[in-house]
């Protein structure tokens, strides 16, 4: 089964060339790249399995692979990237003006966080898939929850 994803092209390239997002993935060191690609798959699979999200748009925001609910407008953007200051670390970034990371902290105190904007991960550790699927699902449906409260 193929995952529905749109790639936002920042600059037009001839057919046969990779997108700018693919180029960013190619630039990561091998262990971090493998984890980020697994995280990308987790985000896409979570979107597909979560009611109300619809297809995601994959784009570059601040030079980071980003996943947007452009069609459904159901959620907040999720970004992923290596942590430049810490070799072997990578992160899932969320909009800092939401209460998402605060909620994640309550649900998953065992995860590592950076302020109110990111879940920090180490390439040497196993991906905490269940927790990340839940967190990503909450982010991709963030606006749906707000709409229900109105």
Task: Tell me what you see in this structure.
This protein is of the alpha+beta class and 150 residues long. Helix content is 37%, strand content 22%. Strands 1-2-3-4-5-7-6 form a seven-stranded mixed sheet. Helix 2 (30-49) crosses helix 4. It is globular and about 35 Å long.
Short précis:
The chain is α+β, with helices and mostly antiparallel strands. Helices cover 37% and strands 22% of the residues. It has helices at 20-27, 30-49, 100-107, 129-140, 142-149, and strands at 5-7, 56-61, 64-68, 78-82, 89-94, 112-114, 118-122.
Task: Itemize the secondary structure elements and their pairings.
Elements: E1 5-7, H1 20-27, H2 30-49, E2 56-61, E3 64-68, E4 78-82, E5 89-94, H3 100-107, E6 112-114, E7 118-122, H4 129-140, H5 142-149
Parallel strand pairs: 1-2
Antiparallel strand pairs: 2-3, 3-4, 4-5, 5-7, 6-7
Helix pairs in contact: 2-4
């Amino acid at each position: 089964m193929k995952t529905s994803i749109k790639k936002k092209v920042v600059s037009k390239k001839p057919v046969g060339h990779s997108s700018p997002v693919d180029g960013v993935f190619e630039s990561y060191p091998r262990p971090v790249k493998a984890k980020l690609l697994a995280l990308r798959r987790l985000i896409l699979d979570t979107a597909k399995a979560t009611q109300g999200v619809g297809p995601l748009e994959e784009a570059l925001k601040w030079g980071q692979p980003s996943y947007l609910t452009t069609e459904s407008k159901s959620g907040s953007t999720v970004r992923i990237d290596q942590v430049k200051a810490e070799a072997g670390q990578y992160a899932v970034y969320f909009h800092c003006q939401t209460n998402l990371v605060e909620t994640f902290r309550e649900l998953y105190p065992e995860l590592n966080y950076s302020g109110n904007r990111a879940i920090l991960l180490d390439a040497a550790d196993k991906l905490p898939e269940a927790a990340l699927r839940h967190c990503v699902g909450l982010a991709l449906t963030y606006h749906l929850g707000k709409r229900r409260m109105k």
